[in-house]
Amino acid sequence: MKRIVTMMLAIAAVFSLLTACSGKTSGAKDDTLIIGIDDKFAPMGFRDENNKIVGFDIDLAKAAAKKMGKKVEFQPIDWKTKESELSSGRIDLIWNGYTITDDRKKKVLFTKPYLKNAQVVVTRTDSKVTKLSDLEGKVVGLQSLSSASDALDANPIKSKIKTVTEFKDNVLALNDLKSGRLDAVVIDEVVINYYMTKEKDTFKILDESLAPEEYGVGVKKGNEELLKNLQKALDDMNADGTASKISTKWFGENKVLK
Fold first, then answer.
1. Beta strands in the chain (DSSP E)
2. One Pfam family of this protein, by short name (predicted)?
3. Which pLDDT band holds residue 29 (cuts at 50, 70, 90)?
4. What is the mean pLDDT of the chain?
């Protein structure tokens, strides 16, 4: 009898612990939005000189969360596993220059587009590459499993490029471009425009872009309620001027789509 009581107490203790852990997780989810980001994706989301996460999407997400009555927590993730992080429940949203594509629509729910972008080709200012056809036989870099990769795959020039090198983030790709290990990098126009304000004599952008695109926020499939509430917050921010102020802060003008 004593043994049975001891076993029952042990089972009860384990159940209590699991319940407490589960309750803690669900409680945090109730009032906090966990947002997955690439923390090297300036100016959308990145770390400043004090290692603080800042950026256009960061400010936009904070403002949206406030309207929703939520707290917000930014979780840097490996961009290659972003959809897995979302589907597993480790994050609630993908919000960091996340391009809307047909393939991604099969995996996540999207808000309406809130910002236009394009995939462009950047080279060094002293490069003889001036048009897409000049990439033939060259070494090109891009962020792995990004819309830059999709845009390049869809262009006929891809088959003529000598080597396509994939990087964990755009910063590493641009560093290799500066050092001469790459001839060009395919990158978001929003991102390279920001870097060129810091290093305007280092890079140049080809006139021909690879693909126009739009950014949206990714929500887990099946979570229509969160999508609805988030979209309402974004719409309200457009209506009351909040989104415009954030855009002007980061881009010098209102680029937010309505």
1. 32-37, 40-41, 45-47, 53-54, 71-76, 93-94, 108-110, 115-124, 139-143, 163-167, 184-188, 203-205, 211-215, 218-220
2. SBP_bac_3
3. low
4. 90
Structure-token pair, residue 189: 């126009």
Short-list 183, 72, 73, 181, CA closest to 134: 183
Residue 99 pairs in a beta bridge with 215
DSSP state of 78: -
Those residues whose C-beta lies under 8 Å from the C-beta of residue 109, and which sit 6 or more positions away, are 218, 219, 220, 221, 223, 224, 227
The confidence band for 185, taking pLDDT boundaries of 50, 70 and 90, is very high
Reported as type and span, the H/E element at residue 152 is helix 147-153
Arithmetic mean of pLDDT, 93-115: 96
How far, in Å, CA of 71 to CA of 65, rounded? 6
pLDDT at 88 over 90: yes
Q: Which of 41, 8, 44 lies closest to 246, judged by CA?
A: 44
Taking the C-alpha atoms of residue 54 and residue 62, their distance in angstroms, rounded to an integer, is 11
Beta strand 108-110 with 218-220 is antiparallel
Domains of the chain (ranges; CATH) run: 27-114+216-251 (3.40.190.10), 117-213 (3.40.190.10)
Residue 9 confidence (pLDDT)? 46
pLDDT (tens digit per residue) in 36-73: 999 999 999 999 999 999 999 999 999 999 999 999 99
pTM over 0.85: no
**Per-residue tokens: 138:** 């060259």
C-alpha–C-alpha distance, residues 53 and 232, integer Å: 25
Residue with tokens 């004090």: 50
- Tell me which residue of 152, 128, 156 sits closest to 140, measured CA to CA: 152
Other CB atoms within 10 A of residue 191 CB: 24
What DSSP designation does 99 have?
B
